[in-house]
Design a protein that fits this description.
By secondary structure, the protein is α/β, with parallel strands linked by helices. It has 25 helices and nine strands. It is about 55% helix and about 10% strand.
Length: about 550
């Protein structure tokens, strides 16, 4: 019998009642009756806390009646309780093959998968449980929490709300619902959920603070800043956090989720305490439409010096940023070989693991000293320089076979000078690899997030006679307010003037490796332009 406990070896070791049942005259007709008695014996042991004896009785019952789904399900639950998860899983699945509409068995299986960190199969089990009973509080709660953990906040909020409406009473459920709604920008509903969690556990200061912060943001949107601050203080009492820092976080949230008017009111209040704050000032400009051709250096330095310690974790885990991997794959598949590589705006060096294997020299440039410190810890760059991108290129007298600018163009509106400088420093046939966020305006536009979006046609026009499009891939650049941001990763080649470069199949001067199968193997023309499938918080 699959799932038999390893503690059982001979019948001499069985509990007395099990031995007596097994020693009775056996026949096929009597097996079902003996299995029923063994099941009763096993459940009695279980109730009395004699788990090993209970497992032995239920295993023998399952051996005698292998098609009894209830015995298999109970055995699976018991084996899971004593830590034999693989055997428990086999018993539960065997039970469900016999009776696929048993709600409790699916719930037990889901719990087992959660204990084993197998979230995918746990989710499937909860979905099956809801197929049987759409009002199962346990399934709604379990699936809602799984969706929350995987950042599917909209469905998480719906599932958790349904569970609470049906009678679930749990501070953690209210807390997770509140956070899911907050992450969706539903601050009023989030405050209501956090308030119920805080009432259930008034000594949980973290929950009380989340409630106070959500109510603060809600009040700023609907009332004055001063009234909102008073509400915040009344909720937190003597445990109130630093109000300036809390208001700064509220400003980030308001900008991120599109509450521009409220953000400007709060931002102006914050500037009264620090009129020279480059971050708040720039975002107010972005919201109100004040013109900028590029992001001010003071903003970039202040922002990324502050952002550096948590940069990688936030980009990769929260924003789902994967542009370096996509760019690295495109470059590897191109078949091009590179000697010198310049990583403009290298940041903490997220792209370095993808770029270093492609060439013999890797140079990083960034405006933030603290970001460069993190990049240096990777030990993948041959040299690192602190400089603004165009200033570095202007002062540089050498050429590169590959220039990379990932998540850099978003801090430039007018790209003409940057493109000209890059083209000037590309070796003949060299490649410019870059990413940008897509906009449908004429050329470019500064968004409230402080980042520029660009029209793909504008990018194509900038290539002019110097650069040819070798590849253009639509992608999700990252998440903003938990929504995908459309963007592109492009490879541009400097024309060498010695051949027809009207299509990406034209040769480049860089020595070529054998072409890899993939996106470049059968490419006859540039990839068509198309559309791809909350970063602000940590940058402010």
């Amino acid at each position: 019998m699959t799932g038999q406990a390893s503690s059982i070896s001979t019948r001499d070791e069985f509990p007395l009642c099990v031995t007596q049942i097994l020693s009775a005259d056996a026949s096929v007709a009597q097996d079902a009756a003996r299995a029923a008695r063994l099941r009763h014996c096993g459940l009695t042991f279980w109730i009395d806390g004699q788990l090993e004896d209970a497992a032995e009785a239920l295993q023998e019952a399952a051996r005698l009646s292998p098609d009894d789904s209830k015995i298999l399900a109970e055995l699976g639950s018991l084996l899971n309780a004593v830590g034999h998860r693989e055997e428990a899983r086999n018993c539960l699945l065997a039970s469900l093959r016999l009776e696929p509409n048993e709600l409790q068995t699916w719930l037990t299986l889901a719990g087992l998968h959660i204990q084993s960190s197998n979230k995918r199969d746990a989710e499937y089990a909860f979905v099956e449980a809801l197929r049987i009973n759409p009002d199962s509080i346990e399934a709604l709660t379990g699936l809602g929490l799984l969706h929350f953990e995987s950042s599917r906040y909209a469905t998480s909020a719906r599932l958790l709300h349904s569970a609470l409406q049906l009678g679930a009473v749990s501070m953690p459920v209210y807390a997770c619902l509140g956070q899911a709604l907050h992450n969706l920008g539903e601050f009023s509903q989030a405050a209501t959920a956090f308030e119920k969690a805080a009432k259930a556990c008034p000594n949980e200061r973290a929950i009380v603070q989340k409630f106070a912060r959500a109510r603060l943001i809600e009040a700023i949107i609907t009332d004055s800043v001063s009234s909102a601050i008073n509400i915040y203080r009344s909720i937190n009492g003597d445990d109130a956090e630093d109000v300036a820092l809390v208001c700064r976080d509220a400003f980030k949230a308001l900008v991120c989720y599109g509450h521009g008017e409220a953000a400007v009111r709060l931002g102006k209040t914050l500037l009264q305490g620090n009129p020279e704050d480059p971050i708040i000032s720039y975002h107010i400009d972005a919201i109100t439409g004040k013109g900028h051709e590029r992001t001010p250096e003071a903003y970039l330095t202040a922002c990324f010096d502050h952002y550096a310690p948590d940069f990688d974790k936030h980009l990769l885990e929260t924003l789902k940023y994967d542009v370096p991997s996509l760019c690295g794959s495109l470059l590897a598949e191109s078949g091009y070989a590179f000697s010198s590589i310049l990583d403009l705006g290298c940041g903490t060096g997220l792209a370095a693991p993808c770029l270093a294997p492609l060439g013999t020299e890797l140079i990083g440039v960034d405006i933030s000293a603290r970001m460069l410190e993190k990049a240096g810890e990777r030990n993948l760059y041959d040299s690192l320089s602190q400089s603004e991108a165009i200033e570095y290129l202007t002062s540089c007298s050498r050429e590169f076979s590959l220039v990379v600018a990932l998540d850099v163009l978003v801090y430039f509106g007018d790209l003409a000078e940057l493109f000209a400088s890059v083209a000037e420093h590309l070796a003949p046939g060299g490649v410019f690899a870059m990413s940008f966020e897509v906009g449908n305006h004429e050329k470019y536009r500064l968004q409230p997030s402080g980042r520029f979006t660009h029209n793909p046609n504008y990018i194509e026009d900038l290539c002019g006679p110097a650069l040819a499009i070798a590849a253009s891939v639509a992608t999700t650049i990252r998440l903003e307010a938990n929504a995908p941001v459309e963007g592109r990763v492009m490879l541009l080649r400097r024309r060498d003037g010695a051949a027809d470069h009207s299509h990406p199949g034209a040769r480049i001067a860089c020595p070529a490796r054998p072409a890899a199968a993939g996106r470049f193997a059968s490419m006859k023309r540039p990839f068509p332009y198309g559309f791809a499938s909350p970063s602000l918080h940590n940058r402010l």
